[in-house]
Specification:
heterodimer; A: Neuraminidase; B: mainly alpha; 12 helices; 77% helix
Amino acid sequence: MIRTVALATLLATPAYAGEIWVTNEKDDTVSVISTETLEVIKTYETGERPRGITFSKDYSRVYICASDSDAVQVMDPATGKILHDLPSGEDPEQFVLHPNDRHLYIANEDDAITTVVDTETRKVIAQIDVGVEPEGMAVSPDGKVAITTSETTNMAHWIDTETQKLFANTLVDSRPRHAEFVKGGSEMWVSSEIGGTVTVFDRDTQAEKGKISFEVQGVHPDRVQPVGFEFTAGDTHAFVALGPSNHVAVVNADTYEVEDYILVGRRVWHMAFNEDRSQLFTTNGVSGDVTVIDVASRKPVKTIKVGRFPWGAAYRPAS
Amino acid sequence: MSPYLTSLRAIVLREALRFVHQRERFVAALVRPLVWLLVFAAGFRAALGLSIIPPYQTYITYETYIVPGLCGMILLFNGMQSSLSLVYDREMGSMKLLLTSPLPRGWLLFCKIVGSTGISILQVYVFLAIAAGFDITIPPMGYVAVLPALLVAGIMLGALGLVLSSFVKQLENFAGVMNFVIFPMFFLSSALYPLWKMAESSTLLHDICALNPFTHAVELIRFALYGQLNLTALAWTVASAAVFTALALWGYAPARSGIGRKR
């Protein structure tokens, strides 16, 4: 009887063990963190200045923007070996994988273009002129719309993925950094680092639906700079990284109100959830570490040392 | 009931009665750490958060940092308060009554410490509860794990109070004790700032802090609040408690204390 119960408990324990992959901008490496032990278990070398990171749908390949190597590298996550490079245009900073698991939309910061690369043929299939210093990238869940935000032009550029042409440009606050489609693709959120806001757009009309401002107690407003953000299960809440304010804000995604601020490391940049979205991993650039937040209690649990200037983060289930 | 237990009961009951009758004192003792926590710490909110030191596993706010120090503050002030009451007892003559009991003085003094430490611990828990109300929390297990640490730290500081009371003969001199013992002990410790921060400004100050038994009492409480045992801090606290107890016993020795002798 005891054995049965023990076995049942064991089986009922969610097998959520996985890994968080973090790119270290200054170390030219990725650190792999176990979501179970919350320790760095592996470190792999990459090209120069790795920033954006994302996995293919089946997690068999990991794409890494090696910005200063002017390439998107494709790595085998099982061995850490670089399989090949993809043509990416100059200085790729961030990218997003189209839901077709094949097309990468890459922001080329220095060239003011968005490059679309076919990961199978390894060929550039389109280059789209966008604003100056493009950075944030997003694709709608239905794959029909891609977004590029440009840091200097302060715009979100709406791209029709069928024609690979811009069909709308919307102004946002100063220095947009990150974009994301939510609520089944009906809303599009953009964070503005210098403006200190997150703007919410209606996808169909491209009209502004709401704007979120932040205020961290004891921190000068200039240092409150929203960058990366991630949504909890069901898109009910957004966790917004506030850069050098060293805090992550918890925003109610329905009322657009900030409910909490969580203290993390210095210059928090991007984030990734574990599989069941019970833990959030934030990359803290200046302090060179990753803070683990317990999503339910909204409390930081542990901070893990990684390489210098961690930037991007992505989840992969353990092999 | 054995006379030992009778005396323990009587002395602890007397402490408890004093506590019940002086509710203002209880409130006043809580106001002090709360002012530190809610006013002082608020101003320094962003001052820390730059380094992770054990037992913490992530970045913390200043409020979180000073909670163990303020628990120590409650124990320290109460230890002193209880020694103050002994000086008062001496002046009023009730101490003479107590010490003429046939039981060993060591036992009587121990009962006294147990009584006052018990009250202090109660105050610490009320303080922690109020802090939790302001969302300054510690892991749930920490609230249990801290109990033995509070007991050891409380006994050490209570013994220190006894030592002082055996040397301070008059109530009026007590202000001196405040200035020369409590404040340096509190400020030259890790209660308000971590020792590495101290070392940045002066290594001498850092070394003084590292020798201060109150630092180790605070660190013992700090680690216990996070379910960890700091053996160095425990050893220092226990050793200090032993030294202070020995001194107190010597201070209250019939031949020395002046009790029963013409002053």
